[in-house]
Amino acid sequence: MEKQRKVMIAILTMLVLIAVIAVIDVSLRIDKTAGPEIKLKMPQFGPGIAIVRVDGPIEMTGPSGFSGVPKGAESVIKRLDELGKNSDIRGIVLRINSPGGTVAATQEIYEKLWKLRKKNIILTASMGDVAASGGYYIASACNHIVANYGTVTGSIGVIAYSPNLKKLFDKLGIGMNVIKSGKYKDILASHRDLAPEERKLLQEMIDSSYDKFIKDIARGRNMNESEIIPVADGRIMNGETALRHGLIDQTGTFEDAILKAKELAGLKEDAPVYDEILSPFDSVLGILGNYFSGGSLSFDKLLRPGKAVEYRYQQ
User: Fold this and answer.
1) Which end of the chain is more exposed for a tag (fewer CB within 10 A), N or C?
2) d(Cα 64, Cα 125) in Å, to the nearest integer?
3) Is position 6 annotated as part of the catalytic site?
C-alpha cells in the first residue's frame, strides 16, 4: 500500500508540473523567433481558419477530461456548430487521428460537416497517423482531403464482434442463467455459439450500415459508388495509395492542409488560425484513454465485450 501511495504521489506531481509549464507557456505565448528577449504574441482577430481535432475512437460521449466536460462526437459537433455561427470563420481544418468508432457517432459528425459545407464553409481534412474507417468517413465530408504519405487510412467497412467463450465456460463448468423476453435478446452473448438466424440478422444490419458508408463517401467525394466499392473491402492503405484511388486529394502535412483551406476560402497565407486549447490534464488523459481504448484487444473490450456496430479499423 505504501509503495502504491508513493507511485500515485509521483504521478500527481508530474501532472501538476506539466500543468504549470503549460499554463506559463500559454499565458506568455512566447515568440520563439524573437531571440533571448521574451515578446508576447498578440491575439489574432478577423476572418480566418479554425482547427477542429478528432483524436482517438469516435464515440458519442468519450471520457471526461480534467475539466469534467465529456469528450467525444458531441463535443466535436458542438464546436462545429459554434464555428458555423461565427462570421469570421471562413474555413475549417478537420485534424483527424482516429481509427474510427461507432456508426451513430460517425454519422452525426459527417452530417454536421455536410451542413457546414452546404453553407459554403470550406472544409479541409488533415489526416495524422491514422484516419481509417470512421476516420475516413468523416474526412469524406470535406471539400479537400490531405494525408501524409505514411497515414494509415481506408479500412472502409463495418464490423461487429464479440468473443465466443463457450469452450472456456464448458471447460470450467460455468453455466449462465438467462431469462429473456425474446429469442434474440442475448444476441452476441459470449457464453454460447451464434445461431445461423442471428448471424443473418446481424449481417443485414452490417450491410445496411455499409451501404450508407459507401453512399456518403460517394456524395462527399463526388464519385460514383462503383469507383469506391473495389477498395471498400476493409483494406488499409497509406496516403500515396489512397491518392491513387481518388480517396484523398493530395499528400502533405497539417500545414499544407491549413494553407489549402486558406486558399480555397480566398484568404491570405497570414490569415488567422484559430486552434483548440486543451488543458495539459486533458492531453495526458486523452493519451491514456486512446491507449486503453484504441485497439480491438483492449482490456475494456475483453472485460466488457461491446455489441456496437462500428466503423472501426481493427489493429
Assistant:
1) N
2) 25
3) no
